[in-house]
Amino acid sequence: METLHVETETKQYPVFIGNEIITDLSPFIKELKPVVTSVLILSDKTVSALYMDNVIEALQGLDLPVHTFVVPNGDGEKSFSNYYNSLTFALENGLDRNSLILALGGGMIGDLAGFVAGTYMRGIRFIQIPTTLLAHDSAVGGKTGINHPLGKNMVGVFHQPEAVFYSINFLDTLPLTELRSGFAEVIKHALIQDEEFYNYLKEEISDLSDIQLENLSHILKKGISIKAEVVSQDEKEKGLRAILNFGHTLGHAIESESGYGTISHGDAVAIGMRFALKLSEELGNTNLHYKEISNWLKQFNYPGVPFQLDAMRLLSAMKRDKKSTSGHVKMVLLEAIGQPYVKEVSDSILLDALQKFLLTDKEQ
User: Fold this and answer.
1) Where is the 3-dehydroquinate synthase N-terminal domain (predicted)?
2) Is 248 considered catalytic here?
3) For a designed S-S bond to 302, which of 147, 270, 279, 332 qualifies (C-beta 3.0 to 4.6 A apart)?
């Protein structure tokens, strides 16, 4: 088992990575102060059918009321209605300020459960139990929230977990589409912070089947370490943490304009990273090996921009992004691999770049 430590201005907590580490969950909960009075496991239908019994069994030694609440799966379920229904269930079952929420699932569940925990009775504790590769990004850092029809993750709070239990065996059942989605965030971490890690990925992973147990732990540890380092310096995204949104400005626009759940988060981010790389080359007059990276991404079958989306529509969505100020889009760009920066880009430049990008994308 590997143990990483996340330290922010408001919280310090461990991230446990390993096989079958869910067996260490009960002893960890027993040590929490104040003493936990009840537990609510929040999950989705797919993950619940696979792993809910494992988690309940791991909690048997606690001698506490354990409640379960299951929502439909899919990013479109990170919604006001599921948030409201989760709160109602917690109230009906008597959760108090010393209760604990367990987020069992991927990024959607982590965000939803964290938001419920962060706002229920003005904030109770929760633990992340990720079941996807994508969640290595969302489970660490304390960003929680739900989607709004006008924008992704527009409603939420910063609320750090008590711990993250990353049981690698829970990733065994991931379909290739979900593995691909999560791998996009791994690539993002490498591109913004660690050229050596990027080179490792390029050399070792040419197909999703190359992601095996022996390198998965290393990939998770490296990706989480990069995010933890950034979050420790800027917990609430007042500056440096914005670099973690590399690829997300266009990616989120594609998700919201396509309809949540139509395209996976990682697939959208992969498109957004390609666009950001191309724009970085054009604005910085530098060579970031855009074609080489694009060809590498194509090996994993990341899709192009959905055909129904045009440049003007995407620009409008990008201007609603949380990082935008007074309607001006701020893009995370690269000076070089591992050297990100944030730049406000004019509408005219963005529109022109998007039109060219979409045209090239549709021709390939």
Assistant:
1) 69-180
2) yes
3) 270
